């Protein structure tokens, strides 16, 4: 046997083969962190499942929050490299926002909740303006009050003629505000504060913040010049922000459908910091490099003049409304078909009950009590599998949810917020991929993680809303 054989034999005897001591130490630390995270997740679920009847709301929320973070550390690509500053600052920002919304008290008043309720009333006022346009085009079909007198109580609201015109109006209004530079100033101000506190880069931070105002399909345009150079971690943060947040137009629609305004608005303002730190847990930066500075208010404008912005925004809103209508028709028909097939194969079985059972542990991690977990799990499952429109539809029309208390409805409105569903993965790959075709493969690899981070962001927000409302 030659000397080469002895060298190979010696290498085979070394633990880790060619791995350096640093790599071995990093691998061991990664294993230890994941093992601890799995143990913490199991402990959280055990507490929530076994001790639920005896847990105060605050303890339940903290246990759920700990379980979600533990799950993310267990799934992290490199848990030993998680940026603790980003996690701590992001969680504190999110907690401060939740406290300001529902926990802040001055005497007998709750200024934060009053502010958000006032914003909700403002949104309802915008809905009134869009209703004027709808009545001009569709007549009595867009007037629920008059139509109800003809067809019966509770039957006057027709989704296509009442909710969808709101998308057209809000989309046109958003385009005008973008053209005037108002949205850039708001996004830039909020993004600068978050970036400096959390230590995140300009492109990922401003992209996440923009999603709250202009939606997951338009937000990448704010950072378009940087898309080709963003690291995988930055790209994941951008995609997760798109999954976690909702555009102003969609918030208006859900509030108009009857969803709790405080829950919807609170989830939206907490989405950006939460999706940022959750994405950084899932995929920390491999080698942190200085990112280029991005001034959100210096991003080139999309339209040429205010009239072009209004007409372009209205056209985009119309396409979005048609997309939503087609999506609802397809998904509701598919769900009805699955229900019928299930009842034919298994008499007495219920698709809703199956979804509720499967997502019950997720609902417990979101801070819902054991008595509420099945109802909440049903909504969460429909949001992920179908979309949030269907979940909000159930929440606002199903008698089972109408009979639930105000606390549950506010938490549920928060939990099902955002665009985190399977269809959104395809939307993001298509929209961002159209801007940077050379990165489609990366987008496809990151999409499931972005979905997970976006879905979990709403659960974390729900826990914090419950914690400070306790």
Please tag this protein with its features.
470 residues, mainly alpha
Topology of helices and strands:
Elements: H1 3-13, H2 21-50, H3 57-75, H4 84-103, H5 111-138, H6 144-151, H7 159-162, H8 164-180, H9 182-198, H10 202-214, H11 232-244, H12 248-257, H13 261-282, H14 306-345, H15 351-358, H16 360-365, H17 370-385, H18 388-397, H19 399-402, H20 406-415, H21 422-435, H22 440-469
Helix pairs in contact: 2-3, 3-22, 4-5, 4-13, 4-22, 5-8, 5-12, 5-13, 8-12, 8-14, 9-10, 10-11, 10-13, 11-13, 11-22, 13-20, 13-22, 15-17, 17-18, 20-22, 21-22
Question: How would you characterize the overall build of this protein?
Answer:
This protein has helices spanning 3-13, 21-50, 57-75, 84-103, 111-138, 144-151, 159-162, 164-180, 182-198, 202-214, 232-244, 248-257, 261-282, 306-345, 351-358, 360-365, 370-385, 388-397, 399-402, 406-415, 422-435, 440-469. Helices cover 74% and strands 0% of the residues. It contains 22 helices and no strands. With 470 residues, it is mainly α. The longest helix has 40 residues, at 306-345. It has one domain (100-469). It is globular.
